[in-house]
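tool=predict chain=A
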Amino acid sequence: MPVVDMSDNQPTQDAGNGNGAAKPSRQPFFSRLRVRLLALVSLAILPALGLVLYTAIDQRRQAAVEAIASAQRIVRIAAAAQKQYIETSRQLLLTLAQLREVRPDRAEEAEALFRTLLPVHAIYANIGAIDAEGYVFASAVPTTNRVYLGDRSYFIRARETQKFAVGDFQTGRITGKATLNMAHPIRGRSSGQFHGVVFVALDLNWLNQLAAKAELPDGSTFTVIDRNANILVRYSIPESDRSWVGESLKANSRIVEFLNRGGDSSGVSAGLDGVKRLYTSTPLNRTLGIADAHVIVGIPVQVAYEAANHTLAQNLIILGIVSLLAMAAAWISSDAFVLRHVRGLVTAAKKMRMGNLSARSGVEHGPGEIGELARSFDEMAAALEQQVAELRKAEEDLKELNEDLEKRVIDRTLELKRSNEDLEQFAYVASHDLQEPLRMITNYLQLLRQRYKDQLDTNAHDFIGFALDGSKRMNQLIHDLLAYSRVGTHGKELVVTECGQALADALANLTVAIEESKAEITHDPLPSVVGDEVQLTQLFQNLIGNAVKFRGDVPPKIHVGVQRKGNDWEFTVRDNGIGIAEQDFQRIFIVFQRLHSREKYPGTGIGLSVCKKIVERHGGRIWVESKVGRGTTFHFTIPVLAGA
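tool=predict ok
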Protein backbone atom coordinates (compact mmCIF):
# COMPACT_ATOMS: atom_id res chain seq x y z
CA MET A 1 0.00 0.00 0.00
CA PRO A 2 1.51 3.40 -0.92
CA VAL A 3 2.32 5.83 1.88
CA VAL A 4 0.77 9.30 1.64
CA ASP A 5 3.07 12.26 2.35
CA MET A 6 1.04 14.47 4.67
CA SER A 7 3.68 17.19 5.17
CA ASP A 8 2.16 19.47 2.50
CA ASN A 9 -1.54 19.26 3.32
CA GLN A 10 -1.61 19.05 7.12
CA PRO A 11 -0.34 21.50 9.77
CA THR A 12 2.51 20.42 12.03
CA GLN A 13 3.79 21.65 15.33
CA ASP A 14 6.71 23.28 13.54
CA ALA A 15 4.61 25.31 11.07
CA GLY A 16 4.16 28.39 13.21
CA ASN A 17 2.41 30.22 10.36
CA GLY A 18 -0.88 31.06 12.09
CA ASN A 19 -2.96 28.59 10.07
CA GLY A 20 -4.21 26.71 13.13
CA ALA A 21 -1.07 24.68 13.78
CA ALA A 22 -0.71 23.32 17.32
CA LYS A 23 1.71 25.24 19.52
CA PRO A 24 4.61 23.27 21.00
CA SER A 25 4.14 22.42 24.67
CA ARG A 26 6.41 24.14 27.17
CA GLN A 27 9.44 21.94 27.78
CA PRO A 28 10.31 21.25 31.46
CA PHE A 29 13.46 23.14 32.43
CA PHE A 30 15.53 20.18 33.62
CA SER A 31 14.57 18.06 30.62
CA ARG A 32 16.51 20.31 28.25
CA LEU A 33 19.73 18.88 26.92
CA ARG A 34 21.66 22.11 27.38
CA VAL A 35 20.57 22.32 31.01
CA ARG A 36 21.68 18.75 31.56
CA LEU A 37 25.08 19.52 30.03
CA LEU A 38 25.43 22.44 32.44
CA ALA A 39 24.40 20.13 35.26
CA LEU A 40 27.19 17.73 34.27
CA VAL A 41 29.67 20.60 34.34
CA SER A 42 28.40 21.51 37.79
CA LEU A 43 28.84 17.92 38.94
CA ALA A 44 32.41 18.00 37.63
CA ILE A 45 33.05 21.10 39.77
CA LEU A 46 31.66 19.49 42.94
CA PRO A 47 34.91 17.60 43.81
CA ALA A 48 36.83 20.89 43.63
CA LEU A 49 34.24 22.52 45.86
CA GLY A 50 34.51 19.64 48.28
CA LEU A 51 38.31 20.01 48.34
CA VAL A 52 38.01 23.75 49.03
CA LEU A 53 35.58 23.13 51.88
CA TYR A 54 37.71 20.32 53.31
CA THR A 55 40.80 22.55 53.18
CA ALA A 56 38.89 25.33 54.95
CA ILE A 57 37.69 22.95 57.66
CA ASP A 58 41.23 21.62 58.14
CA GLN A 59 42.64 25.16 58.30
CA ARG A 60 40.03 26.16 60.87
CA ARG A 61 40.87 23.08 62.92
CA GLN A 62 44.57 23.90 62.74
CA ALA A 63 43.87 27.53 63.64
CA ALA A 64 41.85 26.39 66.65
CA VAL A 65 44.69 24.09 67.73
CA GLU A 66 47.22 26.91 67.40
CA ALA A 67 45.01 29.40 69.24
CA ILE A 68 44.41 26.99 72.10
CA ALA A 69 48.12 26.13 72.24
CA SER A 70 48.98 29.84 72.43
CA ALA A 71 46.46 30.39 75.21
CA GLN A 72 47.73 27.32 77.04
CA ARG A 73 51.25 28.71 76.98
CA ILE A 74 50.00 31.88 78.67
CA VAL A 75 48.07 30.08 81.41
CA ARG A 76 50.99 27.74 82.05
CA ILE A 77 53.34 30.71 82.30
CA ALA A 78 50.92 32.18 84.85
CA ALA A 79 50.88 28.96 86.85
CA ALA A 80 54.68 28.69 86.75
CA ALA A 81 55.10 32.35 87.71
CA GLN A 82 52.78 31.94 90.70
CA LYS A 83 54.76 28.92 91.83
CA GLN A 84 57.94 31.01 91.65
CA TYR A 85 56.30 33.88 93.54
CA ILE A 86 55.18 31.51 96.27
CA GLU A 87 58.71 30.17 96.67
CA THR A 88 60.13 33.71 96.76
CA SER A 89 57.54 34.67 99.36
CA ARG A 90 58.38 31.62 101.48
CA GLN A 91 62.03 32.61 101.62
CA LEU A 92 61.20 36.23 102.42
CA LEU A 93 58.79 35.28 105.20
CA LEU A 94 61.24 32.76 106.67
CA THR A 95 63.80 35.56 106.90
CA LEU A 96 61.37 38.07 108.39
CA ALA A 97 60.11 35.57 110.98
CA GLN A 98 63.65 35.25 112.39
CA LEU A 99 64.21 39.00 112.82
CA ARG A 100 64.06 40.41 116.36
CA GLU A 101 62.10 43.42 115.13
CA VAL A 102 59.19 41.29 113.94
CA ARG A 103 57.58 40.72 117.33
CA PRO A 104 54.25 41.93 118.78
CA ASP A 105 56.16 43.85 121.49
CA ARG A 106 58.18 45.72 118.82
CA ALA A 107 55.30 46.66 116.53
CA GLU A 108 56.64 50.09 115.51
CA GLU A 109 60.01 48.68 114.43
CA ALA A 110 58.25 45.88 112.48
CA GLU A 111 55.92 48.33 110.72
CA ALA A 112 58.83 50.57 109.73
CA LEU A 113 60.66 47.56 108.32
CA PHE A 114 57.60 46.48 106.32
CA ARG A 115 57.10 49.96 104.85
CA THR A 116 60.72 49.96 103.77
CA LEU A 117 60.43 46.53 102.11
CA LEU A 118 57.11 47.07 100.31
CA PRO A 119 58.42 49.45 97.60
CA VAL A 120 61.31 47.07 96.99
CA HIS A 121 58.95 44.10 96.47
CA ALA A 122 56.41 45.63 94.09
CA ILE A 123 54.64 42.32 93.55
CA TYR A 124 53.11 42.57 97.03
CA ALA A 125 50.07 44.60 97.92
CA ASN A 126 51.03 44.50 101.63
CA ILE A 127 53.51 43.08 104.13
CA GLY A 128 52.42 42.70 107.72
CA ALA A 129 52.31 40.71 110.92
CA ILE A 130 49.49 39.27 113.07
CA ASP A 131 49.71 38.51 116.78
CA ALA A 132 48.74 35.20 118.36
CA GLU A 133 45.17 36.43 118.92
CA GLY A 134 44.68 37.20 115.22
CA TYR A 135 44.99 41.02 115.27
CA VAL A 136 47.33 42.94 112.95
CA PHE A 137 50.11 44.57 114.96
CA ALA A 138 52.19 45.80 111.98
CA SER A 139 51.30 46.63 108.35
CA ALA A 140 53.11 48.32 105.48
CA VAL A 141 49.74 49.68 104.36
CA PRO A 142 48.44 52.04 107.06
CA THR A 143 45.31 51.03 108.98
CA THR A 144 42.91 53.34 110.83
CA ASN A 145 41.39 50.71 113.10
CA ARG A 146 42.59 47.56 114.71
CA VAL A 147 42.13 44.84 112.02
CA TYR A 148 41.27 41.22 112.88
CA LEU A 149 42.64 38.57 110.47
CA GLY A 150 42.51 35.57 112.74
CA ASP A 151 39.82 33.97 110.54
CA ARG A 152 41.96 33.98 107.42
CA SER A 153 42.98 30.54 106.15
CA TYR A 154 46.70 31.36 105.88
CA PHE A 155 46.78 32.44 109.58
CA ILE A 156 44.93 29.34 110.74
CA ARG A 157 47.13 26.97 108.71
CA ALA A 158 50.39 28.62 109.84
CA ARG A 159 49.26 28.49 113.51
CA GLU A 160 48.16 24.84 113.30
CA THR A 161 51.08 23.50 111.26
CA GLN A 162 53.75 25.89 112.61
CA LYS A 163 54.99 26.00 109.01
CA PHE A 164 54.80 28.21 105.96
CA ALA A 165 51.19 28.38 104.73
CA VAL A 166 49.43 29.64 101.61
CA GLY A 167 45.93 31.05 101.98
CA ASP A 168 42.99 31.37 99.65
CA PHE A 169 42.63 33.82 96.78
CA GLN A 170 40.79 36.72 98.38
CA THR A 171 40.07 40.43 98.42
CA GLY A 172 42.16 42.01 101.18
CA ARG A 173 40.49 43.78 104.11
CA ILE A 174 43.35 46.29 104.38
CA THR A 175 44.34 46.71 100.69
CA GLY A 176 40.93 46.09 99.04
CA LYS A 177 42.80 44.30 96.24
CA ALA A 178 42.63 40.73 94.89
CA THR A 179 45.55 38.95 96.56
CA LEU A 180 47.01 35.59 97.45
CA ASN A 181 48.24 35.77 101.08
CA MET A 182 51.04 33.66 102.55
CA ALA A 183 52.28 33.47 106.13
CA HIS A 184 55.05 32.06 108.31
CA PRO A 185 54.77 31.52 112.09
CA ILE A 186 56.73 33.75 114.55
CA ARG A 187 58.16 31.70 117.42
CA GLY A 188 60.34 32.50 120.38
CA ARG A 189 64.03 31.78 119.82
CA SER A 190 64.52 29.70 122.95
CA SER A 191 61.01 28.74 124.04
CA GLY A 192 59.54 28.14 120.58
CA GLN A 193 56.35 29.83 121.78
CA PHE A 194 53.91 30.93 119.01
CA HIS A 195 53.77 34.76 118.92
CA GLY A 196 51.83 35.19 115.64
CA VAL A 197 52.58 35.19 111.90
CA VAL A 198 54.29 37.42 109.40
CA PHE A 199 52.45 37.58 106.06
CA VAL A 200 52.69 38.97 102.53
CA ALA A 201 49.78 39.69 100.18
CA LEU A 202 50.74 38.78 96.59
CA ASP A 203 49.00 41.33 94.34
CA LEU A 204 47.15 39.49 91.56
CA ASN A 205 47.63 42.54 89.36
CA TRP A 206 50.75 40.77 88.12
CA LEU A 207 48.40 38.54 86.12
CA ASN A 208 47.05 41.61 84.28
CA GLN A 209 50.62 42.60 83.48
CA LEU A 210 51.30 39.08 82.20
CA ALA A 211 48.22 39.22 79.96
CA ALA A 212 49.26 42.63 78.61
CA LYS A 213 52.73 41.32 77.72
CA ALA A 214 51.24 38.24 76.03
CA GLU A 215 49.92 40.42 73.15
CA LEU A 216 46.63 38.57 72.85
CA PRO A 217 44.53 39.32 69.74
CA ASP A 218 41.62 41.79 69.86
CA GLY A 219 38.59 40.49 71.66
CA SER A 220 40.60 38.14 73.90
CA THR A 221 40.04 37.87 77.63
CA PHE A 222 42.20 36.86 80.60
CA THR A 223 40.17 35.88 83.68
CA VAL A 224 40.97 34.49 87.13
CA ILE A 225 38.11 32.85 89.04
CA ASP A 226 38.45 31.50 92.58
CA ARG A 227 37.00 28.21 93.71
CA ASN A 228 33.87 29.99 94.97
CA ALA A 229 33.16 31.27 91.44
CA ASN A 230 34.17 34.88 92.25
CA ILE A 231 36.01 36.85 89.57
CA LEU A 232 39.40 38.00 90.93
CA VAL A 233 41.02 39.30 87.74
CA ARG A 234 39.44 40.27 84.41
CA TYR A 235 41.60 41.60 81.58
CA SER A 236 40.16 42.17 78.11
CA ILE A 237 41.46 43.54 74.82
CA PRO A 238 40.27 46.21 74.29
CA GLU A 239 39.26 47.17 77.81
CA SER A 240 35.60 46.53 78.60
CA ASP A 241 33.24 49.10 80.06
CA ARG A 242 32.39 46.55 82.73
CA SER A 243 35.18 45.36 85.02
CA TRP A 244 33.50 42.11 86.25
CA VAL A 245 36.05 41.93 89.14
CA GLY A 246 34.39 40.93 92.39
CA GLU A 247 31.24 39.57 90.74
CA SER A 248 30.03 36.07 91.58
CA LEU A 249 29.25 33.44 88.93
CA LYS A 250 27.61 30.92 91.26
CA ALA A 251 24.37 31.23 89.31
CA ASN A 252 26.16 30.00 86.17
CA SER A 253 25.88 26.19 86.37
CA ARG A 254 28.44 25.66 83.58
CA ILE A 255 31.09 27.67 85.45
CA VAL A 256 30.40 25.88 88.74
CA GLU A 257 30.59 22.47 87.05
CA PHE A 258 33.85 23.47 85.38
CA LEU A 259 35.41 24.60 88.69
CA ASN A 260 34.36 21.38 90.42
CA ARG A 261 35.91 19.32 87.63
CA GLY A 262 39.30 21.05 87.92
CA GLY A 263 42.34 20.25 85.79
CA ASP A 264 43.39 21.66 82.42
CA SER A 265 40.62 21.97 79.84
CA SER A 266 39.87 23.54 76.45
CA GLY A 267 36.78 24.13 74.37
CA VAL A 268 34.51 26.55 72.54
CA SER A 269 31.85 28.47 74.46
CA ALA A 270 30.12 31.84 74.74
CA GLY A 271 31.83 34.19 77.21
CA LEU A 272 30.38 36.42 79.90
CA ASP A 273 29.81 39.10 77.27
CA GLY A 274 28.11 36.61 74.87
CA VAL A 275 31.07 36.47 72.44
CA LYS A 276 31.94 32.98 71.22
CA ARG A 277 35.56 32.15 72.05
CA LEU A 278 38.09 29.35 72.14
CA TYR A 279 38.85 28.89 75.85
CA THR A 280 41.66 27.14 77.68
CA SER A 281 42.26 27.08 81.43
CA THR A 282 44.60 25.74 84.07
CA PRO A 283 44.31 25.74 87.88
CA LEU A 284 46.47 27.97 90.06
CA ASN A 285 47.54 25.57 92.81
CA ARG A 286 48.33 26.41 96.39
CA THR A 287 50.46 24.13 98.50
CA LEU A 288 49.55 20.45 98.62
CA GLY A 289 48.29 20.73 95.02
CA ILE A 290 44.91 22.22 96.00
CA ALA A 291 43.24 23.98 93.03
CA ASP A 292 42.07 27.27 94.51
CA ALA A 293 41.58 29.34 91.35
CA HIS A 294 41.58 28.99 87.58
CA VAL A 295 43.26 31.14 84.94
CA ILE A 296 41.09 31.21 81.82
CA VAL A 297 42.22 32.66 78.48
CA GLY A 298 39.65 33.17 75.71
CA ILE A 299 40.40 33.99 72.06
CA PRO A 300 37.44 34.98 69.81
CA VAL A 301 36.52 32.29 67.34
CA GLN A 302 36.16 34.88 64.61
CA VAL A 303 39.74 36.07 65.17
CA ALA A 304 41.12 32.52 65.38
CA TYR A 305 39.41 31.55 62.12
CA GLU A 306 40.07 34.83 60.30
CA ALA A 307 42.91 33.52 58.13
CA ALA A 308 41.06 30.30 57.32
CA ASN A 309 37.88 32.22 56.45
CA HIS A 310 39.84 34.61 54.22
CA THR A 311 41.43 31.69 52.37
CA LEU A 312 38.02 30.01 52.00
CA ALA A 313 36.43 33.16 50.56
CA GLN A 314 39.34 33.60 48.15
CA ASN A 315 39.18 29.98 46.97
CA LEU A 316 35.38 30.15 46.54
CA ILE A 317 35.68 33.30 44.41
CA ILE A 318 38.30 31.67 42.18
CA LEU A 319 36.24 28.48 41.91
CA GLY A 320 33.12 30.51 41.09
CA ILE A 321 34.92 32.36 38.26
CA VAL A 322 36.27 29.09 36.84
CA SER A 323 32.80 27.53 37.10
CA LEU A 324 31.15 30.42 35.26
CA LEU A 325 33.74 30.24 32.48
CA ALA A 326 33.25 26.48 32.17
CA MET A 327 29.46 26.83 32.02
CA ALA A 328 29.68 29.61 29.44
CA ALA A 329 31.91 27.42 27.27
CA ALA A 330 29.52 24.49 27.68
CA TRP A 331 26.54 26.74 26.80
CA ILE A 332 28.12 28.01 23.58
CA SER A 333 29.74 24.78 22.39
CA SER A 334 26.66 22.65 23.13
CA ASP A 335 24.69 24.48 20.44
CA ALA A 336 27.40 24.22 17.80
CA PHE A 337 28.33 20.59 18.35
CA VAL A 338 25.20 18.92 19.72
CA LEU A 339 21.93 20.85 19.84
CA ARG A 340 21.86 21.86 16.14
CA HIS A 341 22.01 18.21 15.09
CA VAL A 342 19.59 17.11 17.79
CA ARG A 343 17.05 19.71 16.61
CA GLY A 344 17.25 18.25 13.11
CA LEU A 345 16.50 14.79 14.52
CA VAL A 346 13.64 16.16 16.64
CA THR A 347 12.09 17.94 13.66
CA ALA A 348 12.20 14.78 11.56
CA ALA A 349 10.73 12.76 14.44
CA LYS A 350 7.83 15.22 14.79
CA LYS A 351 7.08 14.97 11.07
CA MET A 352 7.04 11.20 11.31
CA ARG A 353 4.72 11.43 14.31
CA MET A 354 2.31 13.49 12.21
CA GLY A 355 2.32 10.77 9.55
CA ASN A 356 5.07 11.91 7.19
CA LEU A 357 7.10 8.70 7.15
CA SER A 358 9.26 10.04 4.33
CA ALA A 359 10.83 12.68 6.67
CA ARG A 360 14.61 12.42 7.25
CA SER A 361 17.00 14.10 9.72
CA GLY A 362 19.07 16.10 7.22
CA VAL A 363 22.15 15.58 9.44
CA GLU A 364 25.39 14.53 7.75
CA HIS A 365 26.20 10.87 8.33
CA GLY A 366 29.72 11.53 9.55
CA PRO A 367 31.87 9.87 12.20
CA GLY A 368 31.00 10.21 15.86
CA GLU A 369 27.93 9.47 17.93
CA ILE A 370 25.73 12.21 16.37
CA GLY A 371 26.53 11.04 12.83
CA GLU A 372 25.88 7.42 13.78
CA LEU A 373 22.61 8.45 15.42
CA ALA A 374 21.51 10.35 12.30
CA ARG A 375 22.39 7.41 10.05
CA SER A 376 20.52 4.99 12.31
CA PHE A 377 17.52 7.32 12.46
CA ASP A 378 17.28 7.72 8.71
CA GLU A 379 17.69 3.99 8.16
CA MET A 380 15.03 3.34 10.77
CA ALA A 381 12.68 5.82 9.08
CA ALA A 382 13.14 4.11 5.71
CA ALA A 383 12.58 0.68 7.23
CA LEU A 384 9.57 1.96 9.16
CA GLU A 385 8.06 3.40 6.01
CA GLN A 386 8.28 0.01 4.36
CA GLN A 387 7.10 -1.92 7.41
CA VAL A 388 4.06 0.28 7.93
CA ALA A 389 2.86 -0.52 4.44
CA GLU A 390 3.30 -4.22 5.14
CA LEU A 391 1.75 -3.88 8.57
CA ARG A 392 -1.40 -2.28 7.23
CA LYS A 393 -1.84 -5.16 4.86
CA ALA A 394 -1.25 -7.64 7.69
CA GLU A 395 -3.72 -5.76 9.93
CA GLU A 396 -6.49 -6.17 7.42
CA ASP A 397 -5.82 -9.90 7.13
CA LEU A 398 -5.58 -10.24 10.93
CA LYS A 399 -8.84 -8.35 11.41
CA GLU A 400 -10.65 -10.85 9.24
CA LEU A 401 -9.08 -13.77 11.15
CA ASN A 402 -9.97 -12.22 14.53
CA GLU A 403 -13.59 -11.75 13.55
CA ASP A 404 -13.80 -15.39 12.50
CA LEU A 405 -11.99 -16.57 15.68
CA GLU A 406 -14.24 -14.48 17.93
CA LYS A 407 -17.32 -16.05 16.37
CA ARG A 408 -15.87 -19.52 16.92
CA VAL A 409 -15.06 -18.78 20.58
CA ILE A 410 -18.60 -17.56 21.26
CA ASP A 411 -20.06 -20.64 19.63
CA ARG A 412 -17.70 -22.93 21.54
CA THR A 413 -18.47 -21.22 24.86
CA LEU A 414 -22.21 -21.65 24.37
CA GLU A 415 -21.65 -25.27 23.39
CA LEU A 416 -19.56 -25.95 26.53
CA LYS A 417 -22.17 -24.29 28.73
CA ARG A 418 -24.93 -26.44 27.26
CA SER A 419 -22.73 -29.52 27.62
CA ASN A 420 -22.03 -28.82 31.32
CA GLU A 421 -25.70 -28.25 32.03
CA ASP A 422 -26.60 -31.48 30.18
CA LEU A 423 -23.95 -33.40 32.14
CA GLU A 424 -25.22 -32.15 35.50
CA GLN A 425 -28.80 -32.91 34.49
CA PHE A 426 -27.76 -36.33 33.23
CA ALA A 427 -25.93 -37.14 36.50
CA TYR A 428 -28.96 -36.10 38.50
CA VAL A 429 -31.44 -38.02 36.32
CA ALA A 430 -29.22 -41.09 36.07
CA SER A 431 -28.62 -41.31 39.81
CA HIS A 432 -32.29 -40.64 40.54
CA ASP A 433 -33.55 -43.21 38.03
CA LEU A 434 -31.09 -45.86 39.21
CA GLN A 435 -32.55 -45.83 42.71
CA GLU A 436 -35.87 -47.48 41.67
CA PRO A 437 -34.42 -50.67 40.04
CA LEU A 438 -31.90 -50.91 42.87
CA ARG A 439 -34.71 -50.84 45.45
CA MET A 440 -36.52 -53.56 43.49
CA ILE A 441 -33.40 -55.78 43.48
CA THR A 442 -32.92 -55.23 47.19
CA ASN A 443 -36.58 -56.02 47.98
CA TYR A 444 -36.60 -59.26 45.96
CA LEU A 445 -33.35 -60.41 47.52
CA GLN A 446 -34.79 -59.81 50.98
CA LEU A 447 -38.00 -61.74 49.99
CA LEU A 448 -35.88 -64.55 48.63
CA ARG A 449 -33.95 -64.85 51.92
CA GLN A 450 -37.12 -64.68 54.04
CA ARG A 451 -39.29 -67.17 52.07
CA TYR A 452 -36.68 -69.74 51.14
CA LYS A 453 -34.25 -69.44 54.03
CA ASP A 454 -34.93 -73.05 55.08
CA GLN A 455 -34.45 -74.36 51.54
CA LEU A 456 -31.14 -72.58 50.87
CA ASP A 457 -27.77 -73.81 51.99
CA THR A 458 -25.10 -71.75 53.70
CA ASN A 459 -23.45 -70.68 50.46
CA ALA A 460 -26.75 -69.38 49.10
CA HIS A 461 -27.28 -67.35 52.26
CA ASP A 462 -23.75 -65.91 51.92
CA PHE A 463 -24.36 -65.06 48.28
CA ILE A 464 -27.60 -63.27 49.14
CA GLY A 465 -25.76 -61.36 51.93
CA PHE A 466 -23.03 -60.31 49.50
CA ALA A 467 -25.67 -59.16 47.01
CA LEU A 468 -27.55 -57.18 49.67
CA ASP A 469 -24.28 -55.60 50.90
CA GLY A 470 -23.37 -54.61 47.34
CA SER A 471 -26.87 -53.27 46.81
CA LYS A 472 -26.53 -51.22 49.98
CA ARG A 473 -23.19 -49.80 48.86
CA MET A 474 -24.63 -49.11 45.42
CA ASN A 475 -27.53 -47.26 47.03
CA GLN A 476 -25.13 -45.14 49.12
CA LEU A 477 -23.03 -44.45 46.02
CA ILE A 478 -26.09 -43.32 44.05
CA HIS A 479 -27.25 -41.21 47.01
CA ASP A 480 -23.81 -39.49 47.25
CA LEU A 481 -23.63 -39.02 43.49
CA LEU A 482 -27.09 -37.45 43.56
CA ALA A 483 -25.97 -35.10 46.36
CA TYR A 484 -22.84 -34.19 44.37
CA SER A 485 -24.86 -33.37 41.26
CA ARG A 486 -27.42 -31.35 43.23
CA VAL A 487 -24.76 -28.92 44.63
CA GLY A 488 -24.68 -26.83 41.50
CA THR A 489 -28.20 -27.40 40.14
CA HIS A 490 -30.55 -27.76 43.10
CA GLY A 491 -28.96 -25.49 45.72
CA LYS A 492 -30.99 -22.81 47.44
CA GLU A 493 -30.50 -19.10 46.82
CA LEU A 494 -27.46 -17.70 48.65
CA VAL A 495 -28.68 -15.49 51.51
CA VAL A 496 -27.28 -14.22 54.80
CA THR A 497 -26.70 -17.37 56.86
CA GLU A 498 -25.48 -17.96 60.41
CA CYS A 499 -22.53 -20.38 60.24
CA GLY A 500 -23.01 -21.14 63.92
CA GLN A 501 -26.52 -22.50 63.21
CA ALA A 502 -25.23 -24.56 60.27
CA LEU A 503 -22.57 -26.08 62.54
CA ALA A 504 -25.17 -26.84 65.24
CA ASP A 505 -27.38 -28.63 62.69
CA ALA A 506 -24.40 -30.66 61.46
CA LEU A 507 -23.50 -31.72 65.01
CA ALA A 508 -27.12 -32.71 65.64
CA ASN A 509 -27.03 -34.93 62.55
CA LEU A 510 -23.82 -36.56 63.82
CA THR A 511 -25.00 -37.10 67.42
CA VAL A 512 -24.82 -40.92 67.33
CA ALA A 513 -21.35 -41.02 65.77
CA ILE A 514 -20.06 -38.38 68.20
CA GLU A 515 -21.39 -40.24 71.23
CA GLU A 516 -20.06 -43.63 70.06
CA SER A 517 -16.57 -42.23 69.44
CA LYS A 518 -16.64 -40.04 72.58
CA ALA A 519 -15.50 -37.14 70.40
CA GLU A 520 -14.77 -33.72 71.98
CA ILE A 521 -15.81 -30.90 69.63
CA THR A 522 -15.11 -27.18 70.24
CA HIS A 523 -15.49 -24.14 68.03
CA ASP A 524 -14.82 -20.39 67.84
CA PRO A 525 -17.69 -17.89 67.52
CA LEU A 526 -18.65 -18.23 63.84
CA PRO A 527 -19.67 -15.29 61.60
CA SER A 528 -22.59 -14.77 59.24
CA VAL A 529 -21.96 -15.20 55.51
CA VAL A 530 -23.90 -15.17 52.25
CA GLY A 531 -24.58 -18.86 51.64
CA ASP A 532 -26.89 -21.86 51.41
CA GLU A 533 -27.62 -23.02 54.97
CA VAL A 534 -28.37 -26.62 53.88
CA GLN A 535 -25.12 -26.89 51.92
CA LEU A 536 -23.07 -25.23 54.69
CA THR A 537 -24.57 -27.77 57.13
CA GLN A 538 -23.55 -30.55 54.75
CA LEU A 539 -20.04 -29.01 54.47
CA PHE A 540 -19.50 -29.00 58.26
CA GLN A 541 -21.15 -32.45 58.56
CA ASN A 542 -18.84 -34.03 55.96
CA LEU A 543 -15.64 -32.52 57.43
CA ILE A 544 -16.51 -33.33 61.06
CA GLY A 545 -17.82 -36.77 60.06
CA ASN A 546 -14.49 -37.52 58.36
CA ALA A 547 -12.62 -36.37 61.49
CA VAL A 548 -14.73 -38.76 63.60
CA LYS A 549 -14.39 -41.63 61.12
CA PHE A 550 -10.63 -41.41 60.55
CA ARG A 551 -9.69 -41.30 64.21
CA GLY A 552 -6.76 -42.93 65.96
CA ASP A 553 -6.58 -44.92 69.17
CA VAL A 554 -7.61 -41.97 71.37
CA PRO A 555 -11.02 -40.23 71.36
CA PRO A 556 -11.24 -37.55 68.65
CA LYS A 557 -10.60 -33.90 69.54
CA ILE A 558 -12.03 -31.62 66.87
CA HIS A 559 -11.92 -27.80 66.78
CA VAL A 560 -13.71 -25.55 64.27
CA GLY A 561 -11.90 -22.19 64.06
CA VAL A 562 -12.22 -19.05 61.97
CA GLN A 563 -10.27 -15.84 61.40
CA ARG A 564 -10.58 -12.96 58.98
CA LYS A 565 -7.94 -12.58 56.28
CA GLY A 566 -8.58 -9.60 54.03
CA ASN A 567 -11.96 -9.94 52.34
CA ASP A 568 -12.39 -13.64 53.29
CA TRP A 569 -13.25 -15.67 56.37
CA GLU A 570 -10.82 -18.59 56.66
CA PHE A 571 -12.44 -21.55 58.45
CA THR A 572 -10.43 -24.48 59.86
CA VAL A 573 -11.52 -27.95 60.99
CA ARG A 574 -8.65 -29.46 62.98
CA ASP A 575 -8.54 -33.02 64.40
CA ASN A 576 -6.08 -35.42 66.05
CA GLY A 577 -6.78 -38.35 63.73
CA ILE A 578 -4.63 -40.63 61.60
CA GLY A 579 -3.59 -37.89 59.16
CA ILE A 580 -3.04 -37.83 55.39
CA ALA A 581 0.16 -38.29 53.41
CA GLU A 582 1.31 -35.17 51.55
CA GLN A 583 1.20 -36.86 48.14
CA ASP A 584 -2.56 -37.49 48.62
CA PHE A 585 -3.54 -33.84 49.38
CA GLN A 586 -4.99 -33.21 45.91
CA ARG A 587 -6.29 -36.73 45.31
CA ILE A 588 -8.75 -36.72 48.23
CA PHE A 589 -10.90 -34.02 46.56
CA ILE A 590 -11.45 -36.12 43.40
CA VAL A 591 -14.74 -38.05 43.07
CA PHE A 592 -14.58 -41.77 44.09
CA GLN A 593 -10.94 -41.49 45.26
CA ARG A 594 -10.33 -43.51 48.43
CA LEU A 595 -7.16 -43.88 50.52
CA HIS A 596 -8.32 -46.90 52.61
CA SER A 597 -10.20 -50.14 52.06
CA ARG A 598 -14.00 -50.25 52.55
CA GLU A 599 -13.55 -52.92 55.23
CA LYS A 600 -11.47 -50.59 57.41
CA TYR A 601 -13.19 -47.27 56.67
CA PRO A 602 -16.58 -47.45 54.85
CA GLY A 603 -17.63 -44.79 52.34
CA THR A 604 -17.88 -43.92 48.64
CA GLY A 605 -15.11 -41.31 48.29
CA ILE A 606 -17.50 -38.51 47.32
CA GLY A 607 -17.74 -36.56 50.62
CA LEU A 608 -14.70 -34.28 50.13
CA SER A 609 -15.61 -33.78 46.45
CA VAL A 610 -18.98 -32.48 47.62
CA CYS A 611 -17.20 -30.19 50.12
CA LYS A 612 -14.99 -28.78 47.34
CA LYS A 613 -18.01 -28.15 45.13
CA ILE A 614 -19.94 -26.44 47.96
CA VAL A 615 -17.00 -24.16 48.80
CA GLU A 616 -16.49 -23.21 45.15
CA ARG A 617 -20.22 -22.42 44.80
CA HIS A 618 -19.81 -20.01 47.73
CA GLY A 619 -16.86 -18.26 46.04
CA GLY A 620 -14.05 -19.81 48.11
CA ARG A 621 -11.43 -22.52 48.00
CA ILE A 622 -10.53 -25.52 50.16
CA TRP A 623 -7.19 -27.15 51.00
CA VAL A 624 -5.66 -29.47 53.59
CA GLU A 625 -2.63 -29.55 55.89
CA SER A 626 -1.68 -32.84 57.53
CA LYS A 627 1.03 -35.24 58.63
CA VAL A 628 0.54 -38.98 58.98
CA GLY A 629 -0.20 -39.84 62.60
CA ARG A 630 -0.39 -36.16 63.68
CA GLY A 631 -3.90 -35.14 62.72
CA THR A 632 -5.41 -33.15 59.86
CA THR A 633 -6.56 -29.54 59.36
CA PHE A 634 -8.97 -28.64 56.55
CA HIS A 635 -9.04 -24.95 55.50
CA PHE A 636 -11.77 -23.31 53.43
CA THR A 637 -12.67 -19.68 52.70
CA ILE A 638 -15.96 -17.83 52.26
CA PRO A 639 -16.14 -14.11 51.33
CA VAL A 640 -16.93 -11.61 54.09
CA LEU A 641 -20.34 -9.92 54.01
CA ALA A 642 -20.29 -6.62 52.11
CA GLY A 643 -19.86 -3.73 54.55
CA ALA A 644 -18.69 -6.01 57.39
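The domain at 491-639 is CATH 3.30.565.10 (Heat Shock Protein 90). The CA atoms of residues 588 and 632 lie 13 Å apart.
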